[in-house]
Amino acid sequence: MSFCVVGAGFSGAIIARHLAERGHKVTVVDERPHIGGNCHTERDAETGVMVHKYGPHIFHTADQRAWDYVQRFGAFKPYVNRVKAISQGRVYTLPVNLLTINQFFGTTMGPKEARAFIEGKADKTITNPRSFEEQALSMIGPELYRAFFYGYTRKQWGLEPTELPASILKRLPLRFNYDDNYFNHPYQGMPEEGYTAIVQNILNVEGIDLRLGCSFESLEEKFQHVFYTGPIDRFFQFKLGRLGYRTLDFERFVDEGDHQGTAVINYCDENVPFTRISEHKHFAPWEQDKFSKTVCFREYSRLAGEKDVPYYPIRLVNEKQMLESYIGLARAEKGVSFLGRLGTYRYLDMDVTITEALAACDRIDAALQAKELDLPAFFVDPD
Ligand code: FAD
Ligand code: UDP
After folding, report:
1. pLDDT per residue over 58-83, tens digit each?
2. What torsion, rounded to 10 degrees, do the Cα atoms 339, 343, 347, 352 define?
3. What is the spatial distance between Cα 338 and Cα 380, in angstroms, rounded to a whole number?
4. Residue of 17, 32, 276, 315 marked active site
5. Residue 199 sits in the same domain as residue 338
6. Mean pLDDT, the chain, as a whole number?
7. Which positions carry the signal peptide feature in this UniProt record (predicted)?
8. Which DSSP letter does residue 251 get?
9. Using a 6 Å cutoff on CB, does residue 11 contact ligand 1?
10. 123 shares a domain with 237
11. 31 and 151 belong to one structural domain
């Protein structure tokens, strides 16, 4: 059979490989000049440093299947994401942990004392936090919220934290020990040769016709089924309107040696226009001494315009209503399945993207075995 996969990020590459391995012809298109989607990595021409072109990407997961899968296609080096944050002229560690609390309040508390202290600050009248702000006030109290989250969140989302869902903050841990690992997952690492090399190896199988710099809209051939990992509203020519996204602007600069001493520093104050600076040589500590220069990026967040790369789906009330309508159109459409972060308009970490693509492959196998290509519009509910 002949299939089309739109997008050569993790979602598209995994589906394409799976179909090709089963002897089908797969055309993979991506309008960008490279594979890897938003996880794309490349060597910076001036410094030689491996750069995460669309922002820092750290692989972390609790899913054994996703972890085993990526490791088949490239070696991962151990890497622990430790984020620093600057607030009101001082440096702290994130996520909020015992060091953050003690440094911020000028105390020397132990875990039990600190827990009681923060509980004393937390707003107990909020029992069911509905907004980001309510979540923060009920979790850490007003001082830490103001210092680390209020300004940063306004810069990141362009909205008041009272307008944002509690779920955005819920993904960050709060710890009453000195563990400053940003993630709670058991597996965490960085691909030795970058993410693009992993995706390259996934796509390296007979039967895949990869066309870069090629948009789906420009294709004239017909396919038995299309797997679409581009933006769902774009598939329907935005006929119901555009789903809102935040985009990022990166301001590159080069320095000698080591610029900031770590990979990521967040700038939490509102009067600093960028959200964070990432210094990419620190994402590859095993090779950082090889480079005499260093390359860094200041990151600015703003509402995505029509020509911008979509990064973070906003998913507020208006977008959710529009999404509902697009989901309706997608379910009525024959011969196309939507997946990935753009196809389902959800923020997805890489591991979730991979887990979902592998589950889609299981579903595809069942359909192929039944010799009926009744594939669903979505493999997971995008609501
Ligand atoms: P994408 O990578 O977006 O790939 C979709 C591809 O489709 C793109 O290459 C695009 O060019 C192409 N395309 C779209 N429409 C068309 C069309 N019509 N025709 C042709 N081509 C088309 N995850 C983590 O696990 N850890 C992290 O640290 C992390 N950091 C992140 C930081 C930022 C700033 C962002 C925004 C995301 C981060 N992520 C992280 C999430 C990660 O980027 C996603 O999980 C991953 O990119 C999803 O892969 P995908 O294949 O679904 O989509
Ligand atoms: N956040 C913040 N200050 C920080 C780090 C995070 O206010 O120093 C908020 C911000 O709103 C962000 C959310 O917490 O969107 C979730 O943080 P995470 O690190 O998961 O952000 P992402 O990876 O989505 O950029």
Report:
1. 999 999 999 999 999 999 999 999 99
2. 10
3. 9
4. 276
5. yes
6. 96
7. none
8. E
9. yes
10. no
11. no
d(CA 312, CA 346): 8
pTM above 0.85, yes or no: yes
In this model, does residue 171 exceed pLDDT 90? Answer: no
Tens-digit pLDDT profile for residues 179-237: 999 999 999 999 999 999 999 999 999 999 999 999 999 999 999 999 999 999 999 99
- Of 113, 139, 170, the residue that ends a domain is 170
Q: Are 157 and 164 in contact (CB under 8 A)?
A: yes
The model's pLDDT over 102-133, given as tens digits with 9 standing for 90+, comes to: 999 999 999 999 999 999 999 999 999 999 99
Question: Which ligand is nearest the CA of 56, by number?
Answer: 1
Which residues are near ligand 2 (CB < 6 Å)?
A: 85, 94, 148-149, 152-153, 156, 168-169, 171-172, 266, 268
Protein residue with least CA distance to atom 27, ligand 1: 57
Q: Which domain, by its residues, includes 232?
A: 2-41+192-243+313-369
- Catalytic pick among 17, 32, 246, 315: 246
Residue 22: CB atoms within 10 A of its CB come to: 14
* CATH number, position 235: 3.40.50.720
Q: How far does Cα 266 stand from its chain's mean position?
A: 17
As for how many domains the chain has, the answer is: 2
DSSP SS3 for 8: coil
- Rounded to 10°, the helix 10-21/350-369 angle is 30
d(CA 235, CA 233): 5
Q: 90 near 268, Cβ under 8 Å?
A: no
Exposed, middle or buried, 99 (CB in 10 Å: 0-12/13-18/19+)? middle
The answer to the question of residue 11 being in a domain is yes
Within this chain, do residues 166 and 196 fall inside the same structural domain, yes or no?
Answer: no
| Nearest in space to 278 (alpha carbons), one of 250, 257, 254, 298 | 298
Other CB atoms closer than 10 Å to residue 116's CB: what's the count? 11
The CA distance from 235 to 67, in Å, is 31
Q: Tell me: the pLDDT tens digits for 242-255?
A: 999 999 999 999 99
* Residue having the nearest C-alpha atom to atom 40 of ligand 1: 349
HSE, side-chain direction, 13 A CA sphere, residue 91: 9
Residue 211 and residue 105 share a domain: no
